[in-house]
Amino acid sequence: MEFGFYLKKVISFFIEPLGMVLTLFVLGLYFLFLKKEKKAFYSLISSFMLLLLFAYPPFANFLVSNLEMQYPKYDYSKDIKYIHVLGSGHTTDKEQPISSQISSAGTKRVLEGVIIYKNTPNAKLIFTGYAGETDTSNAVMNSRLAIALGVKKEDIIINGAPKDTKEEAEFTKTLVGKEAFVLVTSATHIPRSMKLFESLGLHPIAAPTNFYKVDDVSYFKAPDVESLYSSTVAIHEYFGLLWVIIK
């Protein structure tokens, strides 16, 4: 199980923008070493062009928008008992406040979950996510932020075991059965999460947050690091969606 999980992480790197670019670049250097100038040229120019494409704001915006616009923002008037906030990254650096120990995506997920909780009487918040390289699970870290924002401890359900979205879905199924519940995660991650949860017979209601899309992007903007990151997030989700469909 552990081997399969880490193998998936390695494969993910090579099918994402930076992995593609580095692979082509290293291949180009290898061809140069072999004195195969033509192959080296095509490999190196391809790596450069791919880097520019994925870092080009309009292209990155196109990639994330196609994912993020599939589900509307959540309607806070719904009366739903369970709100499942999916895990994200975190650190346990004691010199940082809890708001900084959780990743940007994770903070927005928790914040959206808390907003829904405060607009829904008698609701319960579910936090899932494993510890990663730290000594504290992401589920626990997220619950600490929720409590700091005014959520009652008795209204929180924690499971720090799930390592991926499928395991999170399997846990939630044991709690909600066929009952509808709110699913909070990043807007790029919502399409894959919804398909995965629904494939297990669950009935999630999407609550997307942490959007990357920009309303107005000029075609004359230069490539930038933020756009490269947005492209990376989007490509990761496209391949994830393909894997869910294949399975």
Break the fold down into its secondary structure elements and pairings.
Elements lengths: L1 H14 L1 H17 L3 H18 L2 H12 L13 E4 L12 H4 L2 H15 L5 E5 L9 H11 L7 E4 L5 H12 L3 E7 L3 H10 L3 E7 L15 H22 L1
Parallel strand pairs: 1-2, 1-4, 2-3, 4-5
Helix pairs in contact: 1-2, 2-3, 4-10, 6-7, 9-10
The CATH level-2 architecture of the largest domain is identified as 3-Layer(aba) Sandwich
Unreliable residue runs = none
The number of E-state strands comes to 5
CATH topology of the largest domain: Rossmann fold
Shape: elongated
* Structural domain tally: 2
Query: What class, by secondary structure content?
Result: alpha/beta
Strands side by side in the biggest sheet: 3-2-1-4-5
Strand and helix order: HHHHEHHEHEHEHEH
- If you average the pLDDT, what whole number results? 94
What is the top-level CATH class of the largest domain?
Alpha Beta
Number of helices: 10
Description:
With 247 residues, this protein is α/β, with parallel strands linked by helices. The protein has two domains: 2-68 and 225-246, no CATH class; 82-209, 3-Layer(aba) Sandwich (Rossmann fold). Helix content is 55%, strand content 11%. It is built from ten helices and five strands. It has helices at residues 2-15, 17-33, 37-54, 57-68, 98-101, 104-118, 138-148, 165-176, 190-199, 225-246; strands at 82-85, 124-128, 156-159, 180-186, 203-209. It has a five-stranded parallel beta sheet, with helices on both faces. Strand 2, helix 7 (138-148) and strand 3 form a beta-alpha-beta unit. The mean pLDDT is 94.
